[in-house]
Specification:
With about 210 residues, this protein is an all-alpha fold. The protein is about 70% helix and about 0% strand.
């Protein structure tokens, strides 16, 4: 399989849910200008990010936390993290960078919530589904990088619909019903697609020596 593992996944994650891309028009600044505001330590950067990517980030956080209040708190934390890390970071794709920050913070919040109560609804269900086809973390940096590159290559080789369904479920943590409604397909088709893709992923990682 031929792909550039450095960019594949970051390109895909911002194209998988309709209506979640950046706000166009209405005075929204280009990413380069927003990043320039960060570098000049102008707090207008946060206002512009909220205007352009607020709905996108809230959808990511709500998909994991299933609470509007918690999702909003998560987005605020993500914006603070962006302010703290840009500079020195200079993201090639601002949307992907912000999405990863938001997802990471939301998952940490989810884990904290799960520790306080039994069960975690859709997010826990999705994580359990993935547990069967992705190896657990080992702390080995080289192995973690190899796994990330393998995932990027695997995703680049999927058909568009299969990739969208997979990422909506396991990146955005959307329910099967939400994915089916978004794509205009049956729930059984979504479930079948996820099942087939998980099996393909497990087989692919086994061939790469990353799943034993």
């Amino acid at each position: 399989m031929v792909c550039d593992p450095r960019t594949a996944f970051s390109v895909f994650i911002v194209r998988t849910v309709k209506g979640l891309g950046p706000v166009k028009g209405g005075g929204a600044l280009e990413d380069e200008r927003i990043i320039a505001l960060f570098f000049s330590r102008d707090e207008a950067a946060l206002t512009e990010v909220s205007r352009k990517y607020g709905n996108y980030l809230r959808t990511i956080s709500f998909g994991i936390l299933r609470s509007k209040t918690a999702a909003e708190e998560c987005v605020n934390d993500a914006l603070l993290r962006a302010w703290q890390t840009i500079p020195p970071m200079n993201p090639e794709r601002l949307s992907a960078y912000l999405g990863k920050l938001t997802r990471s913070i939301a998952l940490n919040m989810f884990e904290a919530q799960r520790a306080k109560k039994r069960g975690g609804g859709e997010t826990e269900a999705a994580l359990e589904e993935l547990a069967g086809c992705i190896p657990a973390k080992t702390g080995d940096i080289a192995e973690s990088l190899a796994l990330r590159e393998a995932l990027d290559c695997f995703l680049s080789g999927l058909g568009e619909e299969s990739r969208i369904i997979f990422l909506q479920r396991y990146w955005y943590f959307r329910t099967v019903a939400e994915i089916a409604s978004e794509l205009g397909v049956s729930r059984s088709k979504v479930k079948s697609s996820l099942f087939r893709t998980r099996n393909k992923l497990m087989n692919y990682l086994e061939k790469e020596g990353l799943f034993i």
